[in-house]
Amino acid sequence: MTSTGFDVRKIGGRIGAEVHGVTLSDELDPALFTDINAALLEHKALIFRGQHLDDAAQLRFASLFGELTTAHPTVPSVDGQPSILPVDAEEGIRANRWHTDVTFVRTPPKVSTLRGIVVPPYGGNTLIANAAAAYRDLPEPLRHLADSLWAVHTNEYDYAEPPRSERAAEHRRRFVSRTYRTAHPVVRVHPESGERGLFIGGFAQSFLGLGPSESRDLLRILQSYVVRPENIVRVAWSPGDVVVFDNRITQHYAPDDYGDLPRLLHRATVAGDVPVGVNGERSYVLEGDEAGHYTPAAA
Q: Would you list the DSSP string of the chain?
């Protein structure tokens, strides 16, 4: 039990907790939100069951963490809701790969919130991984190497398979309609907790100073530490659930294991700051722009 009277119950040894005794549609007392944010920093991912929010309530809750982004740098939002991205399986939005949200821009989101609306009767879970635990798991020589590396993140990458429908193909065309390439430190220092975490994921395509073959091999090695089973929590959705994760120090993955069944989540993200590496250097743009239309200039 926290000082403000709600329960935080761990559901994984290294990541993830369910929060009980909080109604997100209520106006949250500042002290209560301070405890929620502290729980997020500790557990990296929080699950609030059975909240049944509407878009306005989700946005109101997400905005407690900071200024909201628009839905996405290239993909359209929900009609009339510029800060909500529909994660809709029927539109071909199936994040069937490990990633951290929108790392191809210079200021990726700080926090992502997801709300379950339509949930398949089986499958359709969300997996979330602790990138700080992954960094701690690295053998010392690999940690020293990772500390010195910079990765190129881009939204323009090779897909493993063709789109399954014309709607999915159109979503892909929109996703890459504007190219972004950004250099980020492979080890990011969390601006609030000071933890170090591996900042890679699916949009990281190569390392500065290394060729394609070396980059692929080294990315595979580092990513293997992120996706160790002990570093992952699996969220089984029910309609009305809300999940919040710290986008600065996690990766997530939604297995495409529910056939042609519908699945719809709404995502709202909070504007983040510029990632900083262990030597204090900050991320920078290689191609594209600052994505000012997506991330508020104040970030």
A: --TTS-EEEE-SSSS-EEEES--TTS---HHHHHHHHHHHHHHSEEEETT----HHHHHHHHGGGSPBP-S-SSS--BTTBTT-EEEEGGGT----S-B-TTTTSSS--SEEEEEEEE--SS---EEEEEHHHHHHHS-HHHHHHHHH-EEEEES----SS--SSHHHHHHHHHHTSS--EEEEESEEEPTTT--EEE--STTEEEETTS-HHHHHHHHHHHHHHHT-GGGEEEE---TT-EEEEETTSEEEE----STT---EEEEEEE-----B-TTS-B-EEEES---TTTS-TT-
pTM of the predicted model as reported, rounded to 2 decimal places: 0.94
pLDDT digit string (tens) for 128-173?
999 999 999 999 999 999 999 999 999 886 555 555 666 667 767 7
Region for residue 168 given its phi and psi (left: phi exceeds 0; alpha: psi -120 to 50; beta: otherwise): alpha
Catalytic center residues = 99, 101, 252, 267
The answer to whether 19 and 36 have CB atoms below 8 angstroms apart is: yes
Strands 264-270 and 111-118: antiparallel
pLDDT tens, 35-46?
999 999 999 999
